[in-house]
Amino acid sequence: MKLYDFPRCPYCQKVRLALAEKGLEYDRVLVDLIKREQKEGDFIKMNPYGKVPVLVDGETVLYESSVINEYLEEKYPDPPLMPSEPASRARTRMLCYFADNHFNTPWFNIYRELLLKNNGDRDTGLIETSKAELSQYMERLDRELEGKQYLLGAYTLADIALTPRIALFDILGIAVDAALASAISWMGRIKNRESYAALEIQT
């Protein structure tokens, strides 16, 4: 397998986590998003949207991180990263969608303002409103996690989808209310998994 990858991209990190959890070997092809290599002809032939990650497995070419991770789950089912029961599988997909399409928005606002802009260009108001929105999302996750080790009980693709964002909370100065004990314990378990190293977080 080949993974077309950009190290700091949370969607790429999400796929690397799934690959690590399943112990799968693959070759990495780095795509420099800063140089916009993802928009060049050879890459566009694989992914017409011009985005990473792209996974090539033999003749199969896949893009969209959630699609890739479900493919890996179906083709390489051990260890499992999806529940066996249909309603729980659907809930896993809903939480993956929440991570990528809701949780990611305020998180990326903060990431962009703090890590991609100079001090004088930062929108401090946007940073604060985004932190407030994330606080509400963390309260939701805390409720989801009550009495459970992971979001679905066992570790799944839903936990994987949120991990790249959670991993940068300290770097981005995102605090989690100490009252959210279930969420804080979950974050600790996430960071203690062997696969967490696949994120390649640089502090």
Polypeptide structure, described:
The chain has 203 residues and is α+β, with helices and mostly antiparallel strands. It has two domains: 2-75, 3-Layer(aba) Sandwich (Glutaredoxin), CATH 3.40.30; 86-196, Glutathione S-transferase Yfyf (Class Pi), Chain A, domain 2. The protein has helices spanning 10-21, 41-46, 65-75, 86-115, 124-145, 157-166, 169-172, 181-192, and strands at residues 2-5, 27-30, 54-57, 60-63. A four-stranded mixed sheet has the order 2-1-3-4, covered by helices on one side. Helix 1 links the parallel strand 1 (2-5) and strand 2. The longest helix is centred in the middle third of the chain and has 30 residues, at 86-115. It is globular.
Give the secondary structure arrangement, pairings included.
Blueprint: E1 2-5, H1 10-21, E2 27-30, H2 41-46, E3 54-57, E4 60-63, H3 65-75, H4 86-115, H5 124-145, H6 157-166, H7 169-172, H8 181-192
Parallel strand pairs: 1-2
Antiparallel strand pairs: 1-3, 3-4
Helix pairs in contact: 1-3, 1-6, 4-5, 4-6, 5-8
